[in-house]
Amino acid sequence: MSKVHNFSAGPCILPQEVLKQASEAVINFNNLNLSLLEISHRSKDFVEVMEKAQALVKELLDVPDGYSVLFLQGGASLGFLKAAYNFMKEDGSAAYLNTGTWANKAQKEAARLGTIIEVASSADKNYSYIPKNYQIPGSADYLHITTNNTIFGTQLKNIPISRIPIIADMSSDIFSKKINVADFDMIYAGAQKNMGPAGTTLYIVKDSALGKTGRNIPAMLDLQVHIKKESMFNTPPVYPIYVSMLNLQWLKDNGGVDWIEKINEQKAALLYNEIDNNPLFKGTAEVDSRSNMNPTFVLTNDALKDEFDAMWQAANISGIKGHRDVGGYRASMYNALPLESVQVLVDVMKEFTKKHG
Ligand SMILES: *Cc1c(COP(=O)(O)O)cnc(C)c1O
In terms of Cα–Cα distance, which of 296, 307, 297 is closest to 353? Predict the structure, then answer.
């Protein structure tokens, strides 16, 4: 089997050793002669998995006391609604920074429950930059941000200074770099971009911020219910939680977030350097807003598309076709993607340009 360089935007690459361990647990988990898929979520063996996954999140992100870690269902898309239900007061309002498709969807869901104040938007330039110098209304219940815009290849370099609580969708850059959890009342992330497989969503929630909206929250959307039941109000997605745990253990064993942050910076520098210096390519995001996770770029001459596509396919590169809203290419470089894979892509870009030089 020849090695594939997997730049998929999500679900995305996971470490080979994680996949191997995960596959073994399907047949014989913990030497129980039972599959992880056929035991109770309340069994000692699975409860240990859940506790270990939560402990790894706390350790890797240095989560302070007073925060709960949850593994729930519904994807980040249900998180959009959970944010509003749990943090927007009845008759309240919330501020949203509109930096892309997902940010926009988050804001549309919250608009079902109350007044939305869009503090800034980069929709005017197809979300190719992160807005600066906007006012955050002190009267809003929270500010919602999307730290990395998976589709448009932009990323917040700094968390806004805000007097009101911040809620962040970190689906596509959680665990890619250090963060200060205390800056947020809630962080949430679908697992399938940088934590594990699709099917579970991570929530890191400040306990003291909950229970203040005056709303009658449906149980499945009520974070206090899930905290009380330790993510087992109903049957949790056992397998995605298990594989996420393995992946977080992989990250810890290799040196944690400090280690991966440096590698992610190297990968991004390598690719952006080629995009900027190769006359046949052009980045689509403004330089100071560029994402280290999802670099987006286009050919300067569209007529060469078929030829370039054939070349990267021949090099066993997979998943770099751009999102339909941006076109061109998107090379997603999540934690498990090795630097060598980025080098292969850069070599193909160089080779391509040499042929046309
Ligand atoms: C993929 C993505 C989502 C949607 O996640 P689901 O788990 O599919 O609901 C939300 N926000 C961001 C930033 C994403 O990248």
Answer: 307
Residues whose CB is less than 8 angstroms from the CB of residue 350 and which lie 6 or more positions away in sequence, other chains included: 274, 278
Q: Which atom of ligand 1 is nearest to the CA of 100?
A: 13
Q: Is the pLDDT assigned to residue 1 strictly greater than 60?
A: no
Give the residue, by CA position, lying nearest to ligand 1 atom 7: 75
Burial of 124 (0-12, 13-18, 19+ CB in 10 A): exposed
Name beta bridge partners: 282.
Answer: 298
Question: Which of 191, 197, 166 lies closest to 71, judged by CA?
Answer: 191
Looking at residue 353, what is its pLDDT? 96
Instruction: Encode pLDDT of 168-208 as tens digits.
Output: 999 999 999 999 999 999 999 999 999 999 999 999 999 99
Q: Strands 5-6 and 317-318, how do they pair?
A: parallel
Q: Would you state the pLDDT for residue 357?
A: 72
Does domain 256-355 fall under CATH 3.90.1150.10? My reply is: yes
Pocket of ligand 1 (CB under 6 A): 10, 75-77, 102, 146, 150, 169, 171-172, 190, 193
Domain 16-254 has CATH 3.40.640.10: yes
Q: Where are the domains of the chain?
A: 16-254, 256-355
Is residue 280 within 8 A of residue 299, CB to CB? The reply is yes
Task: Give the chain's count of helices (H) and strands (E).
Answer: 9, 14
The shares of helix, strand and coil residues in the chain, as percent rounded to the nearest 5, are 40, 15, 45
Backbone φ and ψ of 54, nearest 5°: -65, -40
Cα 282 to middle of ligand 1, angstroms: 26
- pLDDT beyond 60 at 103: yes
User: What pTM did the predictor assign?
Assistant: 0.98
